[in-house]
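Much of what follows relies on a compact textual record of a protein's fold. With that in mind, consider the following protein and its fold in token form.
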Amino acid sequence: MKSIDPLGAALRALPPAAPPGDLYAQVARTLEARRAGRRWQVPAALAASILFGWLLVNQPWNGRDRSGGPADTPLATATTPAPSANDELANLQDYSRRLESWLADLSDGVPRDGRNLMAAAELEDLVGLVDVQLSAARSASESLPLWRQRVALLEDLATVRSEPFALAAEPARNGAASPTL
């Protein structure tokens, strides 16, 4: 009498296993799709930075007359008194507050590159160091260069933090899917 092995019979009844497709070709296509999606990231980041810088320069708090009127002529510039240190200090403090509120409103849910995270952390540390120096400043003449430095650092931080938004918007404009990392 033959013993029937149910497991052996079940395994023999299975269809033959098909080998997987060409895995190398699939990986190559995936990598090429990722590279194609990243080709526009650097130009998009550069364009976003230029646009951000242009917007910052053309804001009303920079003290320029954007009407193209007499304040743009060399004669009017030469006869117009330079803003006082206190006025410049007040403008820098106001601009700093606006940048801080804008940075606070940025979404933290956006995926960020590790280099951007490191750069943002470094810039935040530098702003903190300038704040410490500002707390020790005794006069407007001591604090004015520090406020200029603080605003420059905040502008750099705004550029670093806004880069993921520009990069995330770029593939959608080209009709391509956002690459996954």
Observations:
- Confidence is low (pLDDT under 50) at residues 64-77, 172-176.
- The longest helix spans residues 140-174.
- Residues 57 and 64 are 9 Å apart (CA to CA).
- The chain has seven helices and no strands.
